[in-house]
Amino acid sequence: MDQVSASAFFGVFDWVYQRLQQNGFLKSYEVLGHQLLVTLDGTQYFNSHRVHCEQCSHRSHATGRVSYFHSAVLPAIVAPGKSEVMVSGIHHASGWTRETRL
Q1: Stated pTM of the model
Q2: How far is CA 4 from the centre of its chain?
Q3: What percentage of the chain's residues is helix, strand, coil (to nearest 5)?
Q4: Residue 1 lies inside a defined structural domain of this protein
Q5: 32's torsion region: left (phi>0), alpha (psi -120 to 50) or beta?
Q6: I want to staple 59 with a disulfide (CB 3.0 to 4.6 A). Which of 4, 7, 44, 100 is the partner?
Q7: Gap between the Cα atoms of 85 and 82, Å rounded
């Protein structure tokens, strides 16, 4: 997946959005003049000091130890007063070259 451009998936997301909208699933999430409120949450879903791949992000600790990890941004459609959340996808953040010094 990491070698595939994100733009390759735009058509799929458009198709899913259109079907959700046409079937009325998004109506109850509309706020402020038919707008959708999308929240973003980041998470780390893998962490190791030994196991890693070329797409792993990494942190160099003050002790010299390196932590390898993967992270994701999870967008979700939300609305005030609704307890249900519509998760719209998971995006792998590979390709980012960020080293954090702890």
Answers
A1: 0.55
A2: 16
A3: 20, 40, 40
A4: no
A5: left
A6: 100
A7: 8
Residue 73 is assigned to a structural domain of this protein: yes
- In the chain, the amino acid numbered 94 is S
Q: Is residue 68 part of a domain?
A: yes
Find the domain containing 53 and state its range: 6-101
The first and second tokens of residue 30, run together, are 């509309």
Instruction: Please give the DSSP secondary-structure letter assigned to residue 54.
Output: T
In a domain, 55, yes or no: yes
Number of domains the chain contains:
1
